[in-house]
Amino acid sequence: MASRHAADQSFLHFAPTRVVFGLGAHKEAPLELRTLGKSRAMLVTDAMLAAKTDLVERVKKALGATCVAVFAEVQPDSPTSIVDRGAQLAREHGIDAIVSLGGGSAIDTAKGIAIAHTEGGSVLDHQGFQNLTRPTTVHLAIPTTAGTGSEVTRAAVLFDEKARQKLIYGDFHLFPRVAVLDPELTVGMPASITAGTGLDALTHAIEAMHSAQREPIADALALQAIRYVRRYLPTAVRAPNDLEARGKMLLAATMAGQAFDNAQVGVVHAIAHSVGAKRHVHHGTANAIALPHCIRFNADDPAAAEAYRDAAEAFEVAVDGLGPERAAHALADAVEAFVAEVGLPTRLRQVGVVEDDLRAIAEMSVTDASIVYNPKFAMDADLVLGIVQSAY
Ligand SMILES: [Fe+2]
User: Fold this and answer.
1) What is the CATH number of the domain that holds 321?
2) Using 50, 70 and 90 to split pLDDT, how confident is the model at 166?
3) Residues 17, 181: contact at Cβ < 8 Å?
4) What is the DSSP string of 346-359?
């Protein structure tokens, strides 16, 4: 069978974020900022984290005098009005760095703030891909969930409340300069968020592998991420204080993040973004529901099936003697069972989506930038409708 990794395939792999991993690693944040010549940081985090956990206080304490402002107004899905308010606060305090603390919404809000703080105006003025004219404000990201991978990617997904649409920003200037991965900061994550964000990481890894822009370095990162999710996510869900499982899941999220940042994602994310915009379903949960159905949709594409066979092996699915297409279906079944095993819903009808939404979700999905990289042609609302109907 012809391989996607033909000898003449050229690609560019770029992973410029410095990764600092370890128990207590958040205490390294001020040193990392000093190394970058920065001394006036604004901490960007969400109100829930500030109100219900001691994480914000712990990171503030670690930052000491380096922290000159705290913006604790992040909301789920990173609304653009909140981003603009954060950029205003950054200007008022004359900051020279941003430290984000939280899940994907906090990190993406911080990326948006970095854009508006550097370029001026509203973040809405700078939409799109490779529009930024210079490096953005230094950003050090400290994830408290293990899933989005946003700490090592060039993308930010914001929510335009007026248009009720998710906006994807992508730019070389959006990579956080440093990602601090501290397993201790993720132990308080509730089981549902642990599971949902973990499935986001698994989706990034599998989508990176089936992508039309698949490449070998991203594949290696994705395969290790898939192994870690399979082995450690159920433990992280069952035993929240297990630091080994928490650490492996942080690494899985970061590796999957670097994989998809280079290889891109596909129809699963297009659907998840649309389901999220329509019904505010948690991003990872939306991916978890869509993923098996999208694998089945793509399974008759030879290159995708070959990737799924590799992914299935990493996911500990018995594929000996199975051809790639049958291995792909075995992977889809195993993923669906895994989603249920970690306690997540497996149907769109279970998360507030109604049958009347399906056509709109399909139409929104074909305009999503992610769908371009799907291995099989999917930019047709009727095709996507078939997938979302099967996921309903
Ligand atoms: Fe994602």
Assistant:
1) 1.20.1090.10
2) confident
3) no
4) -SGGGGT--GGGHH
Residues 219, 168, single domain; the answer is no
Helix (H) or strand (E) holding 89: helix 80-92
Give the distance, in angstroms, between the CA of residue 376 and the centroid of all CA atoms in the same chain: 22
Q: Which of 124-133, 211-220, 344-353 has the lowest mean pLDDT?
A: 124-133
Q: What's the CA-to-centroid distance between 31 and ligand 1, angstroms?
A: 30
**What is the count of structural domains for the chain?**
2
249 or 128: which leads in pLDDT: 249
Residue 85 lies in a domain: yes
Domain extent at residue 55: 18-186
Last residue of a domain, one of 143, 158, 186: 186
Would residue 374 be called left, alpha or beta, if left means φ above 0 and alpha means ψ between -120 and 50 degrees?
Answer: beta
The answer on 338 and 203 residing in a single domain is yes
Residue 277's pLDDT band (cuts 50, 70, 90): confident
Listing DSSP states for 187-224 in one string gives TT--HHHHHHHHHHHHHHHHHHHHSTT--HHHHHHHHH
How far, in Å, from the CA of 37 to the mean position of ligand 1? Answer: 32
Q: How far is the CA of 29 from the centre of ligand 1 (A)?
A: 26
One domain, residues 210 and 323: yes
Q: What is the mean pLDDT of residues 152-178?
A: 93
Computed from CA positions of residues 275, 281, 287, 291, in that sequence, does the dihedral angle turn out positive or negative? negative
Mean pLDDT confidence for 2-10: 63
Q: Residue 5 falls within a domain, yes or no?
A: no
Task: For residue 148, report the distance from its CA to the centre of ligand 1, in Å.
Answer: 5
Mean pLDDT score of the chain: 96
Ligand 1 mean position to 47 CA, how many Å? 22
- Give residue 269 CA to ligand 1 midpoint distance, Å: 6
Distance 300 CA to ligand 1 centre (A): 24
Domain end residue (candidates: 186, 206, 239):
186
Shortest CA distance to 16 belongs to which of 171, 128, 130, 168?
171
